[in-house]
Amino acid sequence: MTLLSRFLAWFMAPFRDEPVRRKRVARTSAAPAQPEESGPAYSAPWERGLNAPSLEVREVRRHVLDELHRMEVEARSFDDRALLRRLQGVVAMENLGLPPFPGTVVELKRMLSRGVEVPSARLANVIEKDHALVEEVLRQARGPNWSKGPESLHAAVTRIGNDALWRISMRFALEATVFFVPGYQDRVEQIRVHSLVAAEVVAWMLGDAEERGGAWLAGLLHDVGKLIVLKEAGGLGAPVSEELLEEIMDRTHASIGFLVANAWEFEELECGAIATHHGGNRRSGPEARLGFYLHLADIAAHGVEARHARKSSPARSVLVREAKAMGFDGDQALTIADRAYTRLKALRAA
Ligand SMILES: [Fe+2]
Ligand SMILES: [Fe+2]
Questions:
Q1: Residue 49 CA, ligand 1 centroid: distance in Å
Q2: The pTM is what?
Q3: Which end of the chain has a smaller Cβ tally under 10 Å, C or N?
Q4: What's the distance, CA 171 to chain centroid?
Q5: Distances (CA, A) of 289 to 134, 216, 302
Q6: CA 149 – CA 158 distance, rounded (Å)
Q7: What is the distance in A from the centroid of ligand 1 to the CA of 6?
Q8: In angstroms, rounded to a whole number, what is the distance separating the alpha carbons of residues 74 and 69?
Q9: Which ligand is nearest to the Cα of residue 198, counting in written order?
Q10: What's the CA-to-centroid distance between 47 and ligand 2, angstroms?
């Protein structure tokens, strides 16, 4: 087993045995009212994060570099300045220092996008090019719902189904390029769970047409910019101020996420939605529309995090009000988020 596949196995561990199909909840059925938690306040991160200033890569890169430079000039400690310089170095690179999105997954993404059915044998031919992905698909197909393992990779692909394969491969690719971050691993785990919850919610909001479309993927990646910041902070090997870290993430993560999605050559829709997932600064067009749904899914994910932490949060009231304007039930979105969150936490604890 290579170092990379061992690392991947570790990184995927919290998601093992995840049911291959999410349960759909009728968008129109009445959901039980979800009370707001009382207790210490949970901050509202969806209000603090800033959208990218545009959907032009050069402009966004320039904006992030200017922001980081401004913060560097104002930073008080040597280590804080060192982090800001590291980040400027990373953002200046076209690929942000990340490995390319795995070719196998790009091929699967193209074959599986937008709900088109593809024969399992063709999918198996693509998957078998990547040994670590083969292991993951076989492992998923040996879940507790079956009495014996699949006889072949082809059989495994048929067994788990195209929707599950799409999710496994996208998640796999993201996790292959994201990292163990010394000193910040708990935060990384939190962001992973948060992102998967938001992905489930936004895919539900947009219905069947988006099952394997940009919505779920944009949800999965919406806060990837924060992971880049944490990666550089962890790589510094020295403590940086918590206040500065939060400020960097709030001001730049949507922009950095947009640059990451572009570096990985994702579709404009996915890139644009990541850039605009903090609401407020609404633009016209499909990217902004998906970005706004993502904003609502983000609130739902934060809402369940607050509830499970027994903190008071305005998430539910904000979500219910905003969701109503978009024609769906905010409490239902919270129910979807809660199920996803509870399942992921249970898997992590197992
Ligand atoms: Fe965000
Ligand atoms: Fe988020």
A1: 6
A2: 0.81
A3: C
A4: 9
A5: 36, 14, 20
A6: 12
A7: 30
A8: 9
A9: 2
A10: 11
- Residues within 5 Å of ion ligand 2 by Cβ? 223, 298
Structural domain boundaries enclosing 273: 36-55+180-350
Tell me the ligand closest to 256's alpha carbon: 1
CATH number at residue 288: 1.10.3210.10
Q: Please name which of 55, 3, 12 lies closest in space to residue 257, comparing C-alpha atoms.
A: 55
Of all ligands present, the nearest one to the C-alpha of 202 is 2
- Å from CA of 284 to ligand 2 middle: 22
pLDDT in tens, 40-58: 666 788 888 899 999 999 9
Q: How many domains does the chain have?
A: 1
Helix 162-177 and helix 131-140, axial crossing angle in degrees, nearest 10: 130
Task: Give domain status of residue 268, yes or no.
Answer: yes
113 falls within a domain: no
Using a pLDDT cut of 70, give the percent of the chain over it.
Answer: 81
pLDDT, tens digit, 9 for 90 and up, residues 286-317: 888 889 999 999 999 999 999 998 888 899 99
Residue 104 has pLDDT above 50, yes or no: yes
For 343, the token pair is 């399942």
The answer for residues whose C-beta is within 8 angstroms of residue 342's C-beta and 6 or more apart is: none
The Å distance, Cα 142 to ligand 2 centre, comes to 32
Q: What is the pLDDT of residues 164-182, one digit of tens each?
A: 888 788 777 767 666 668 8
Q: Is the pLDDT of residue 282 over 70?
A: no
Terminal-residue alpha carbon distance, the chain: 24
**Stretch 321-347: mean pLDDT:** 89
**Residue 96 tokens, joined:** 């942000």
Say if CB 235 and CB 185 are below 8 A apart: no
Q: Residue 335 has what pLDDT?
A: 95
Q: Which residues pair with 107 in a beta bridge?
A: none
Select, from the ranges 18-22, 257-261, 289-293, the one with the highest average predicted confidence (pLDDT).
257-261
